[in-house]
Model the fold of this input.
Amino acid sequence: MISQEELIKYFLLESEEYINTIIEGLEDLEHKGYNKDTLEALYRATHTLKGSASIVKFNKIATLSHKLEDLFEALMNEEIEYESSLLNVIKKVINAIVSLINEISKLKKEQSEIDDNLLKLIEDIIERKISYQPEQVAETYISMPMLNSVRVDLSHIENIFDILGEVILQKNIINDREKELKSLIDEILNSGKKLFNEITTFSDRYWLTPLDKTHKVLDSFFTDFSDLEFDRYDEYHIFTRKIAEITNDINEGLNELILFFDNLSYNFKSLNKEINNLRDNLLMIRMIPIGRLLNKIAEAIKDIANSLGKKINIEIKGSDVKIDKPIFDALYEPILHLLRNAVDHGIEPPETRTALGKSKIGNIKINIKKEGKYINISISDDGRGIDIEKVKEIAFNKGLISQEQLTFMPKEEVLSYIFAPGFSTSEKVDFQSGRGMGLNIVKTTITKLKGTIEVSSEIFKGTTFLIKIPQSLTISYLLIFSSSNLEFAIPINYIEEILLIEDFPEVKRDKKINHKNRIIPVKIFSEQYFSSNGKDKDRGYIIIFNFLGIRKGLLVEDILGQEETTIYPLGKFLEGLIQYIGYVISSNGVPRLVIDPLRIFEEEFYFAHAPTPHIVKGAKLSRTVLVVDDSISVRKSLQTLLESKNVRVYSAKDGAEALNILENKHVDIVITDLEMPVMHGYELISRLRKDYRFKDLPIIVLTSRGTKKHQEKAIDLGADGFIIKPFDDKTITELLSKFEILNSNIY
Amino acid sequence: MDEEIKEEKQFCVFGIGEREFLIPKESVVQIVDITKIFPIPGSPDYIVGALPVRGKIIPAIDIAKVYNVERINYSDNKLLVVDVDGEKIGILSDITPFFVSFDKDIVVDDYIDPKKLFEELKVKQPSSNKANEF
Done:
């Protein structure tokens, strides 16, 4: 439950606004005389003030505002005549309210008593019992309490978010650059070390022995030379020494560079953290506890229940969960709708409930829970539930569903038809037990918020709606893919899993796949968007979407990764392209259009299906290992071992061949030898780490050199683990499990 | 770029193929070198794609497709960024656009009204039954 303190804070904020509106209105009346519009504004402000005060149970303010409301209403409807002298009375009431607000601000409660005479006076005025005698002393307003907050126009915050978007973009660029810098430094370091070693060995060999001038050189190689040539030998000595010194300097410089880079890297990391912090904090600015919304709706719903002669109790849990302001605003209608339906169709009249052995008072429970970046709102009632047979009947009559489908369809799926467009609006009258009107609108609204809604119900026991929405609309989670050399993004919230095209060789011909005993229709992205079949590449992925239980596949050529970013609108000129939600800009400045997944399959949505849509954190892929080793026996033995564990294996005999495979095939992990012809393991690792596509690809080094030095070098270059030759089953299994290669349940 | 000359109106001249067009100077916000244009699948053929400029994308319009100008070689190397009520659109130009002034009352041919151009060329939403045919 939202704390009383928090509620008071909001009430103070709100009341300030209403009081200001009222004072402005009164000033208008004072200077311009009677005006119906002004009175209406005054009436509305007092009405809302009354409402807010009663939610927080500030009954005195509620009573006073109620009286004022009555007075303004009477004036507005010209039941009583407006006299400027009335203003003084009104001002007195306002001052009484403001004093109470001041008390609340200080003491968190209303302390002083209401002046009954004042109330009586207003009542009398309204009932025209007395003609009001103006007092001579004009009232002045008491000032409102100082609040520790400012009101900011939402557009300012939007602006800050735009700037933040740019900052995050630059941050991402810096992050990429940092990695480039790191590999550059590694390369220099490597070469530097080589140079240093060469020079050292060289000078060790030619330098130490004949240094001493007094010492006669006995080597025939030297004695055979003339003195002149000996001078040269001296120069040669000096040169070598100089080179050695310079190399030393370079080496020192390199060490400093490493230190510098480490510091810089640390600074980048801190900057990163702070920017993320900033983003989270900024997001919080726009966040509003959902309880404020629910409290308002709950009051309205209780009124409705009363008018229907039903008694209800609304229990709200988790109302301090915060949501983004635009979502907050957009949720009002759908939640009101669901609750109204619950009261209208769900909760039975008290007599019926008693007869059924239920408590007289109907219970509605609203439960809000934060789950990662999403918020779950469940709304359940203990009413009569939805009659599944009636749903079947209507779905069948409307032609949404065939007789055969009905026999096999699970209950949840049948239920989900209540969200279908035009499902029951016309049946409202005889569809008593169901949820009548406009559930399709509810669903549409939720879908627009990138959320989902499900229903479950048990006849005579009750109905539960589960809404799942993102906490914020500003930052979206996108899957990046490419097609015809263009990059695109698609929101991940509908994506259930990602499959490899190799496992479904007929997909391009059949336009459907059989996956986990489900026939899933598949569209080919390049056909849809480029009207080409994208050349018959055998590479590709099938993205499986789950739209409230309906699964659809989309075949794309390549998947580049996942990103968390702000979607920009396309603008007025391009907004007719409704297949796009907007666009994002990648860290290296490439624009990516964001596909609206619902549009791709649009013509196939005549209705909505049921159960749990599953939001995946990452892409689940079949596991593939690339083995790189120049020895065929190692390759074969490793391949046999891995294949026995249901892992797909590609093999290459050197780094160059490995790169070629990686270019064309999807690989989950690389196991590589270090010493190989053409391109050795160190180079392969360093190349992979420089390529943004492979920078996070796990690499395991397979080596017979068990020394720490070798291991360290490989780790420095970016390897993730080791296998020392000769290897056994157990080591491989352990290591691969560590990288989640073996615990895949795809097969 | 010429400084203001009184009693004259200033235009920006850009060229497509053999033809030259005029657009009011004040609506031109920027002239960008085209490095790479990213196609927008599903857009009308006169929209050749989008060009990222300072973190935002600007749709690039090929006037040749609109006015049926014949063009032998595509050497569109400049993008004239035009602001229409806060929305930015880009027009391809084969030549580097330059500014000219005319007497106020001279009627010029090949004059482009940016607002009209925007309204006529902006992408219309497909009617609902054809929503998927892009």
User: Anything to note?
Assistant: The longest strand of chain A covers residues 362-371. Chain A touches chain B through 28 residues (CB under 8 Å). Residues 475-604 of chain A form a domain with the SH3 type barrels. fold (CATH 2.30.30.40).
